[in-house]
Amino acid sequence: MGYGNLYHPESVSPQAFGDPKDFKKLAATVSAKIKTECPGVVWKESFVTLGRFDAVDIVESADLKQVEKAAMIIRAYGHSTTETLVATPWKEFVAML
Fold first, then answer.
1. In the prediction, which pLDDT does 2 show?
2. Phi/psi at 30 (nearest 5 deg)?
3. Sign of dihedral through CA atoms 70, 57, 31, 5?
4. CB of 5 within 8 A of CB of 85?
5. Separation in Å, CA 17 to CA 20, 21, 42, 77, 87
6. Is residue 97 very low, low, confident or very high in pLDDT (cuts 50, 70, 90)?
7. How far apart are CA 13 and CA 2, in angstroms?
8. pTM of full prediction above 0.90
9. pLDDT at position 33 over 80
10. For the chain, is the Cβ count within 10 Å smaller at the N or the C terminus?
11. Using an 8 Å Cβ cutoff, are 58 and 7 in contact?
């Protein structure tokens, strides 16, 4: 089964970094770790949000296990809480009805 688009909202711990400029280094570390350890995950886009979550990452993968591993990397190295949502593009959803 292909999983397609997965939306991955996350909230970063206030203890993750002391200076907001340090966030760039933290994000680069997490990104590099995911690229190395989760080759089946294609990172499509990331957004900063002003709501319940600090960021939302949009990824694609046919392997849910790799997405789970990426989420754990974000939690461990990014000092974040995460939630993974499987999503279907609207046009695909309506077409299958």
1. 47
2. -65, -45
3. positive
4. no
5. 7, 9, 26, 11, 31
6. very high
7. 32
8. no
9. yes
10. C
11. yes
In the block, tokens 């299958």 appear at: 96
Instruction: CATH number of the domain at 45, please.
Output: 3.30.70.1060
Q: How far is CA 18 from the centre of its chain?
A: 22
Give me the domain span that covers residue 41. Answer: 5-96
| Spatial CA neighbour of 7 closest among 97, 82, 80, 73 | 82
Q: Does residue 9 contact residue 21 with C-beta atoms inside 8 Å?
A: no
Please tell me the total count of domains within the chain: 1
Phi, psi of 54 (to 5 degrees): -80, -30
The tokens for 53 are 């979550």
Q: Which residues are registered as beta bridge partners of 83?
A: none
